[in-house]
């Protein structure tokens, strides 16, 4: 039985990149033949997108986005670390971060202590750690994760490992939000593109919801008795916590039923259906797409309400970022007096997000020489601030959002030692 389960799981895993599957025929429980069929899953709020009865997508979307509309809850009394993390999750859920990113609590003290002082920084450096130690800081929120790649040892030879050791010795927690702050509506990228004024803003790379029920099973039963028996057995799969029934309908060929389930419940659910003759012959397995989360994702495109010239855009962004210098590459055929009506922005190193986007101006921290040439050749001007300069100004915005949710006993400080390593000399 265990071997059969393993074989079936591997069969499904090998097809994970396909959007949908339909069970065509079964010679045995371990001999499955699948063919692709169309299926999609979008919330009802998305125009012209089909809805499936298998999941209440509008309710799911409301639940996932509730942090956007919920009035701020202010904690009172001593603030524990876990409570602080809950507030951070409400402001920007870690599920919005990119899959390659290393976000969340990176260093956790062994001895719990109330959070009284929080230090916000773009990067955790030696200078910032000295500042945190001087403040007797309890939690460091470092936008960039100081620990990113796996490490095999903690010693004093590597500067990132050295900082982690210092945090542990001081009993400081270290948390990194990184791309969850980029993606969230009202986050880093919305703040960055707003530097040129108001406009109609859209997301360049759409974030998707983390739907718990991601498979739909459709099958036919000969009779009500068989259907009831099958449904009782399905409910027992995975403790019955990962199954949603979408009802049934009857016709001359039998009773057609549909249920949705999670990844963990897929294998036992299919095995249950294969044990019954009618479901065995009629089973269809469909992979449901994750619903988009409007307003959340990487990069922003703004159609400005009031177009500006390239020269005006430069001055506005200098003021917005608090910088005296920016780097500008004029697009082919453009001058400082050319009009900018559409602007695409991505904080940090944004070339991969901005590539191919039609806009009068790109705004990001850094791009390679050839990426700048490619954009300029297409007539798009490029404005670069250096990597962390495109992100750091958001810390002051986030400080205000965080402070109103914390008790007066907690002090939130923006680092004075944090700065971009590059300077214009």
Automatic annotation (TrEMBL):
GO biological process: regulation of DNA-templated transcription
Keywords: Acetylation, Cytoplasm, Metal-binding, Nucleus, Phosphoprotein
Keyword field contains Protease: no
SUPFAM superfamilies according to UniProt: NIF3 (NGG1p interacting factor 3)-like
Main location group: cytoplasm
Subcellular location: Cytoplasm; Nucleus
InterPro entries per record: DUF34/NIF3, DUF34/NIF3_animal, DUF34/NIF3_sf
Lipoprotein as UniProt keyword: no
Coiled coil, from the record: none
GO cellular component labels: mitochondrion; nucleus
An annotated Gene Ontology molecular function: metal ion binding
One Pfam family named in its UniProt record: DUF34_NIF3
Amino-acid positions noted as binding a divalent metal cation in the UniProt annotation, renumbered to this chain: 144, 182, 387, 391
Family the UniProt entry places it in: Belongs to the GTP cyclohydrolase I type 2/NIF3 family.
PANTHER family: NGG1 INTERACTING FACTOR 3, NIF3-LIKE PROTEIN 1
Quaternary structure annotation from Swiss-Prot or TrEMBL: Homodimer. Interacts with COPS2. Interacts with THOC7.
Purpose: May function as a transcriptional corepressor through its interaction with COPS2, negatively regulating the expression of genes involved in neuronal differentiation.
Protein's recorded name: NIF3-like protein 1
